[in-house]
Amino acid sequence: HFLCPVRRLAQLLERVSNQSTFLYNWDWRETCSAWDRFFPASWHVSHSSDLPILFDAFSNCTSSMEDSAVKSAAQLFWANFARHGQPGCFGEACWQRFRQEDRSEE
Fold first, then answer.
1. Phi, psi dihedrals of residue 5, rounded to the nearest 5°
2. Which candidate among 14, 22, 36, 83 keeps its CA 20 to 30 Å from the CA of 95?
3. pTM over 0.85, yes/no
4. What is the CA radius of gyration of the chain?
């Protein structure tokens, strides 16, 4: 499973660096039908399936309100991370720094 090695890396970075570490688990599937050309429904979500949302690649789609909210939050988090080194919050949704003691098992 992909998540276990990523968490181990985050644990190591937390121990040996003075940098904040941020993890995320992308599990959102855009409702736009153009999505299916690149990410078949049977895949649900996969590695890199967040990129079309981050870069607004499906401009020919009418997004649902939920899709628009996820897209806005993801774009804001990444822009804040690039500018300030902290993803921050979108409304009440906050992307918190990884902390070993806060992690949950999936």
1. -65, -35
2. 36
3. no
4. 15
